[in-house]
């Protein structure tokens, strides 16, 4: 059974594999490995060491923002 992180990871990789995103990464000379590691870091630290729900919500919102921004830029 997939976890939420697994689903987010899968969706993020699908977006990174879209031709428009690949072209943008090349055109802007972005390092794909850094992008992937940054997203992974967000997933790993989603709940952090602080139990504050504001921090948790902020991290979740940022993950969603990354996915939605990449998706809307290609459509």
Structure, described:
- The protein has one domain (4-74).
- The chain is built from four helices and no strands.
- The chain has helices at residues 4-16, 19-27, 32-44, 53-74.
- The chain has 75 residues and is mainly α.
- The protein starts with a helix and ends with a helix.
List keywords for this structure.
75 residues; mainly alpha; 76% helix
How would you summarize what this structure contains?
The chain has 75 residues and is an all-alpha fold. It is 76% helix and 0% strand.
Tell me, rounded to a whole number, the average pLDDT. Answer: 81
Percentage of β-strand residues: under 5%
Our count of helices gives: 4
Sheet/helix structural class? mainly alpha
Give the radius of gyration.
13 Å
> In one word, what is the shape?
globular
Report the major sheet: none
